[in-house]
Design a protein that fits this description.
- The structure is a single chain.
- This protein is mostly helical and 362 residues long.
- It contains 15 helices and no strands.
- It is 64% helix and 0% strand.
- α11 crosses α12.
Length: 362
């Protein structure tokens, strides 16, 4: 598989000599000193050094591509499982570099045109959001793979700890579905504590009518029902003031909500509140951009990803169910003010906890 040194040198010698046409005289003797201006002899071809270098680069690149193809073919025949890891690793880095190039273009446009994050189109906003989250996890992997031959260590990590150490760029299609299901199961463990905390907090609401609506909403979800959008919006005013606003929510409630956004709850209370508020506002801005675009403009994979980000296990549902759920989510989100983003976080549980199983009960 390695390039032949002798054949490479021989070919390079031919390339260098191609700029000097040999001239022959009638008696067959070789004379390199015969003037090429002679009317009886053909004109000489002169090649510049830049053309020679380009020819060398093309030749070397062709030989390396050929050797790499043979190497991949050998791995695919003899070590198919390792080849899958190798192929996933190479393609993952290609996607990562493409995303980095796209993010650089978006940020350059924001800087040159003075565009704010909330004014970006939906796809560009989602690209920035997802790339930032991925890079936080990908930086250790990139650093590990820099030293020579360290990519073999990365292969070992990919094999034994793909979910914990790698970002989705380096997951196989089967792993992506499997790992999203595992992450959602971890997220779903906090549905009941969030509902219980919301029900307990409802006792502190002074308005008896709103208190009753909020309690009925919690009980309905706890009993396996799916609330209507109107039932959720009926209590939206409670989430802009104590005890349910972002700045006045209890620390224990914030610790249960954090895993819904894949954020760690193991931080001081004031840091958890700040991170939750930042992610909630970002999600609200993303929803507004999606409403401007129109969810019907999204592909099936984009629909599933949008639902998954907002708390739904979309891989287990049909695409029409995902579209219906996303429309319900946007109806809630489009009616909220920035001071009411606490309700948006609770809607992750209210809208997704029983969807769509409760539909079959009515």
């Amino acid at each position: 598989m390695a390039l032949s040194c002798s054949s490479l040198c021989a070919h390079l010698s031919l390339i260098r000599l191609c700029g000097l046409r040999t001239n022959r005289i009638p008696n067959g003797l070789y004379s390199p000193y015969v003037s090429c201006q002679s009317s009886r002899l053909p004109l000489c071809r002169h090649y510049s050094s830049s053309k020679v270098r380009r020819g060398i680069r093309r030749y070397v690149a062709t030989r390396l591509q050929r050797a790499n193809s043979k190497y991949e073919g050998f791995l695919k025949r003899r070590f198919p499982r390792f080849f899958q890891l190798y192929h996933t690793f190479v393609e993952g880095f290609k996607m990562l570099f493409r995303d980095a190039k796209e993010v650089r273009r978006i940020k350059a446009k924001m800087f040159s045109d003075g565009v704010q994050f909330q004014d970006l189109p939906y796809r560009e906003m989602e690209k920035l959001r997802q790339f930032r989250r991925d890079m936080i996890k990908a930086i250790p992997l990139v650093v590990i793979s820099i030293p020579p031959f360290a990519n073999y260590l990365v292969f070992v990590l990919m094999y034994f700890f793909p979910r914990q150490l790698l970002i989705p760029h380096f997951w196989t299609p089967r792993q992506q579905v499997e790992f999203r299901g595992m992450y959602h199961s971890l997220r779903a463990r906090h549905h009941w504590p969030v509902l219980k905390g919301l029900e307990n907090t409802s006792r502190k609401v002074k308005n008896s009518q709103l208190q009753g609506r909020l309690k009925d909403l919690c009980v309905k979800v706890q009993n396996g029902g799916n609330p209507k959008v109107s039932e959720i919006l009926a209590v939206q005013g409670l989430f802009s003031r104590p005890p349910l606003s972002m700045k006045r929510m209890s620390v224990s409630q914030m610790r249960h909500i954090s895993p819904l956004l894949f954020l760690t709850p193991r931080l001081p209370g004031f840091l958890i509140g700040r991170r939750l508020n930042s992610h909630a506002l970002e999600l609200l801005q993303l929803d507004r951009a999606l409403s401007r675009l129109g969810p019907h403009q999204l592909s099936d994979s984009e629909i599933r990803q949008a639902c998954y980000v907002r708390g739904l296990h979309s891989d287990s549902l049909g695409i029409n169910q995902c579209r219906e759920w996303l429309n319900q989510w946007l109806q809630v989100s489009s009616s909220l003010k920035e001071s009411e983003v606490s309700l948006l976080l609770h809607s992750i549980v209210l809208l997704s906890a029983n969807y769509p199983t409760a539909l079959s009960r009515h």
